[in-house]
Amino acid sequence: MKQALITGVTGQDGAYLSQYLLNKGYKVFGTFRRISTPNFWRLQSLGIYSKINLIPADLLDMGSMIEAVRVSDPDEIYNMAASSYVGTSFEQAVGNAEITGLAVTKFLEAIKVLKVNAKFYQASSSEMYGNNSYKIQDEQTPFYPASPYAVAKLYAHRITNVYRNSYKMFAVSGILFNHESPLRGIEFVSRKISNGVAEIAFGLKDKLVLGNLYAKRDWGYAAEYMKAVHLMLQQDKPEDFVISTGDAHSVLDFVRLAFEIVGLNWKKYVKTDKRFFRPFDVDYLCGNNKKARRKLDWNPTINFEKLVELMVKEDLSRWKMFVEGKTFPWDAPLYPNEAKLITRSSDESINSKMRKNRKVKRRSLRI
Question: What domain range is 80 assigned to?
Fold first, then answer.
């Protein structure tokens, strides 16, 4: 029986990868960060929580990562953990650099020091491409990161390559384009839309506030992307792969389709707020997956329309159960109202409104 160690096992990708490997007959170990209120809802919703061997660990503590490797004695290591929300990386740039970037070096050092003969997977990101001038991005496209998150991911991507070449490790990076699912966190725009549409459909809220509606992304289904991740570690030699659908759609496309599913006109409910715009946004990302198709024999099967439908219907089902008073593992009721979150952008938005109100008052006094 093969053994796998997955960091970030409580996240979307960690949960789906765990399910996939368990179905393959693996013994799965997963690291999680100790917090006062543990969050295992994704593993519970997939019905695999009891099947995962959980190891408390912290990516910033090399000692705990060494211990995780020793305890799990893995054949394969999947580093899925990161501070993965791009918007937050502008507010927590230093922490993001340490967790998403520097921690990968510590992990690779731990593997080197222990002389573990395990294959290593690093979760890279299409955000590393940033605002490049290429219509479609592949493994050879230059990187122009446009956020602290993307910079940290690029560091992790490059250092993985350095350890592969310097120490003959079987270490690969999967450059995954946006991959979504009903297990996506609500802070991500795809799930923010599907969950918001479901709430509006049930009359639980009357608007959906978003940022840039015109950014385009290559959106795929997270669960089937994990098959590609696994296949990368089954190859004879370590190589990096782009995993994508090759089809880009705007946030507005996602919004329109989501509201169509519940029979509502999106224009009546959707508002935009500058506080949800990134300081430096990426306009367009679309991946060329020809190498993965050829060498991994991997093909995405869930298209954009099916993905949106899948997410909206799952959130509708959840809110229906919630209204009926049923108990089940879920994140939405615990997520804070974004209007209460104070950030630099929200502070600027509030100050802007105050300045506008003061101008209106001054004009009225002159009149």
Answer: 3-181+220-243
Place of tokens 């009359």: 203
Q: What is the mean pLDDT of residues 30-48?
A: 90
Q: Give 196: exposed, middle or buried? Use CB within 10 Å, 0-12, 13-18, 19+.
A: buried
Mark whether 221 is an active-site residue. no
Domain assignment present for 198: no
List the catalytic residue out of 72, 76, 78, 127.
127
CATH of the domain at 13: 3.40.50.720
- Which residues neighbour 317 within 8 Å (Cβ) at sequence distance 6 or greater? none
Q: Catalytic: 125?
A: yes
Residue 338 among the catalytic residues: no
Task: For residue range 322-334, list pLDDT tens digits in order.
Answer: 999 999 999 998 7
Query: Residues, the chain, total?
Result: 367
Q: Which of 26, 149, 225, 284 is catalytic?
A: 149
Say if 190 falls within a structural domain.
no
Q: Select which of 125, 181, 194, 345 is catalytic.
A: 125
With 70 as the cut, is the pLDDT of residue 202 above it?
A: yes
Q: What is the pLDDT of residues 234-281, one digit of tens each?
A: 999 999 999 999 999 999 999 999 999 999 999 999 999 988 776 767
> For residue 86, what pLDDT band results from cuts at 50, 70 and 90?
low
Residue 354 lies in a domain: no
| Number of domains into which the chain is organized | 1
How far from each other are the two terminal CA atoms of the chain, in whole angstroms?
82
